[in-house]
Design goal:
By secondary structure, this protein is an alpha/beta fold. The chain has 18 helices and nine strands.
Length: about 550
């Protein structure tokens, strides 16, 4: 049986939007906690001759930030604060009689200096570092939609096309080769929309748009492959207490009304006849549950680092989970050595789980897709787990770790399947992103989409308006990030999600006003001034104008709705 580990790396655009708590510190946390440790582990595996064929997705909006020169300065400030905290903490802890925590501070000091040395060794260029691993055949890099826009809910087919075309072009620009695969934002899928009784035009499915952008595969959650026809929205019962858990009774109920349940251990041909072939990898419920589930998953082990208890200032975490119902005030001191030993045990258990799933079925594949930030950031020992897992799989006889495209080369002719509509979010449908608390964002977005594409068609051939059109496209893409609705829906920092969404919509509105037919000279000049103001804050996707032109050429007016 093949095993495909897929890591999806994504953060919204935060450079130029402050530091703490949701500005560049958010990005720097990802660098320090996840991306550098992952790179370190992959390099060690490479050094030791251990295959580690990770399928690593990096969204274009994240890749742009990792390649931005501003990251060097922001990371230096962020890391210096952590180092100062580690330097001053021992004396303060001793004064408070918390001597058991001092060795943990020493652990953090050594780790911080090691990560700084690695960052310096790669000249602060994580994009090139991961690109080098791909060029040597160690990993496979895949792309995503430009800013992680929630594709099924975008009103205009042009908007979905732009998200994917920019995603493809930015990947080529930054990583030097075309991405064979794509991570659909939130694993959200929508099939082709047929013409209705009102003669509304057909809208291509997400699979067709992915094929247009040159992607040959993507990933879906198990319930989207359970039936042969779209299921639409699920009942209002959640799929599970955790974000990615599966509620088996709900799936069973859905299956009872549809075609027999299909195996999640196969890849499926999902593109319509006549279009370029696109395949869907299906998330393995069992192995994924072992990592994600609050009750059964590894990250809840009592030996692991407690994420929520933090020492301020400096952000040091010095305590362990201790137990599922232990109050933060009663958490015990963290023991890195014991935690590492538990990661080794969990890697052994995970290998055994994969071996139990392996059968003689041809072309069988277990797909484990996760957010990359789970490993190292949310689950501190997660990178150690991955390192050990690949070492234990190196001599496995029935489980073969492979990259996604490698598995596809040996699958023959996969079964054709029509996926259901939905996502991997709560309820399995679109409700995490479209609900009473977020409906206002979509009302505004849909109006903005209509205005932008109407203006773009009239302005695309006017060279004098090119800078305005390019920046308007950037603001449209940034406003479309699925992060804003997710943040609003979870309610933890809803004000921030709303503010960022409105910020980008307001900027797009001002820019579009200078593009629309009949714009006054004052409006055009004001739009040019807006471009200058945004040049340092939101200057990403340098070739976006080429993608806008491509979208307009591909989308006749009769099919743009």
């Amino acid at each position: 049986m093949d095993f495909v580990l897929t890591l999806h790396s994504h953060l919204p655009y935060v450079l130029g939007h402050g530091r703490w708590p949701h500005g560049s510190d958010w990005l720097c946390e990802g660098v320090l906690d996840t991306y550098l440790p992952l790179l370190e582990a992959l390099r060690h595996l490479d050094r030791d001759g251990v295959p580690s064929p990770v399928t690593l997705g990096i969204t274009p909006v994240l890749a742009n930030q990792l390649a931005d020169p501003r990251l060097d300065e922001e990371f230096e400030v962020f890391l210096a604060e952590r180092v100062r905290a580690a330097d001053t903490a021992p004396e303060e802890l001793a004064q408070r009689g918390e001597h058991d925590l001092i060795p943990i501070v020493e652990f953090w000091r050594a780790r911080l200096h090691r990560m700084r040395a690695l960052f310096d060794d790669i000249d602060g260029d994580l994009v090139s570092a991961f690109r080098s691993l791909q060029e040597s055949g160690r990993i496979e890099l895949i792309s995503s939609a430009a800013t992680h826009g929630y594709l099924p809910l975008l009103k205009r087919v042009e908007s979905a096309r732009l998200q994917l075309l920019v995603g493809a072009s930015e990947h080529r620009r930054l990583f030097g080769t075309a991405a064979k695969g794509c991570w659909l934002p939130e694993c959200a899928y929508r099939p082709r929309q047929r013409k209705g009784p009102d003669h509304a035009p057909a809208r291509p499915g997400v699979d067709e748009l992915a094929a247009e952008a040159g992607f040959g595969f993507f990933f879906v959650d198990a319930h989207l492959a359970i039936a042969g026809e779209p299921l639409g929205a699920y009942p209002d019962a959640p799929l599970g207490a955790e974000r990615f858990d599966i509620d088996r009774p709900l799936l069973a109920a859905a299956a009872a009304h549809r075609a027999p349940e299909r195996s999640p251990y196969r890849v499926y041909h999902v593109s319509p006849a006549g279009s370029s072939p696109v395949h869907a990898f299906v998330r393995d419920p069992e192995s994924s549950r072992q990592v994600w589930s609050r009750d059964r998953g590894y990250p809840g082990d009592e030996a692991y680092l407690e994420f929520h208890k933090i020492r301020w200032p400096g952000g040091l975490k010095l305590w362990r989970v201790t137990g599922p119902d232990v109050d933060l005030g009663a958490k015990l001191a963290y023991d890195p050595t014991h935690a590492r030993s538990r990661a080794v045990e969990h890697a052994r258990h995970f290998r055994e789980l994969l071996e139990r799933e392996a059968t003689g079925e041809p072309h069988r594949v277990a797909v484990a897709p996760f957010d990359t930030e789970l490993f190292g950031h949310w689950w501190f020992e997660g990178v150690d787990f991955l390192d050990t897992l690949y070492r234990r799989l190196a001599d496995a006889s029935v489980v073969r770790p492979v990259m996604a495209s490698e598995h596809l080369r040996h699958t023959g002719s996969p079964e054709r399947l029509q996926l259901a509509e939905g996502s991997w979010g709560a309820n399995g449908d679109h409700s995490m992103w479209m609900n009473d608390g977020t409906k206002w964002t979509w009302d505004r977005m849909w109006d903005l989409e209509d205005r932008f594409w109407a203006a773009a068609r009239s302005a695309v051939s006017d060279g004098a308006l090119a800078p305005i059109l390019a920046q308007a496209a950037r603001q449209l893409l940034l406003a479309q990030a699925s992060d804003w609705q997710f943040i609003i829906s979870t309610g933890v920092t809803a004000d921030y999600g709303s503010k960022r969404f409105v910020t980008h919509c307001d900027a797009a509105d001002r820019l579009v006003a200078g593009l629309e037919p009949g714009a006054t000279p004052h409006q055009v000049e004001a739009a040019h001034a807006e471009v200058r103001d945004l040049a340092q804050r939101d200057m990403l996707f340098p070739d976006v104008l080429s993608s806008v032109r491509d979208v307009i050429e591909r989308t006749p007016l009769t099919t743009s709705g």
